[in-house]
Write a structure and sequence with these properties.
139 residues; single chain; mainly alpha
């Protein structure tokens, strides 16, 4: 009986998903820093800080939301990278790798759903001036 060859960590799929992860994280960070500086709270860096209930942020939409597009790719690429890295593991380490992939998948679902709600609910509501129940969706 021959042993099945193990997948190497430097598998092209693993490497490419890690590169996508790094590039998406860099793009999200760059867009967030340049296009969406804090406009409220103690870290407000602009002269026009927005106060509660934060309904005046419509003036900066949609640029406030552009960072979410590459940021949504980050958890997907992380899950793919972890999936590729767990392949060559065996025994107990394989179970820990499976747990890491499951936790990354759970985080992916939560983050992508949160970004989708921001894009599909908060931004259009700001444009239409429907801010009465917006606090629930923006949190």
């Amino acid at each position: 009986m021959t042993a099945e060859p193990t997948r190497r960590v430097n598998d092209p799929l693993t490497v490419s998903s890690a590169v996508v992860l790094a590039l998406a994280a860099l793009a999200a960070f760059s867009l967030a820093v340049t296009l969406a500086p804090p406009r409220s709270g103690p870290n407000c860096l602009t002269p026009q800080c927005v106060g509660y209930p934060y309904t005046d942020v419509a003036a900066w939409a949609p640029t406030e939301y552009w960072w979410m597009l590459p940021a949504a790719v980050v958890p997907l690429a992380l899950t793919a990278s972890l999936g590729g890295l767990r392949e060559p593991l065996a025994g107990t380490r394989r179970r820990v790798g499976d747990l890491a992939v499951l936790l990354a998948l759970a985080a992916t679902v939560v983050l992508v759903a949160a970004y989708a709600i921001q894009w599909r609910t908060v931004q259009p509501s700001l444009f239409r001036g429907e801010t009465e129940h917006l606090v629930l969706w923006s949190q």
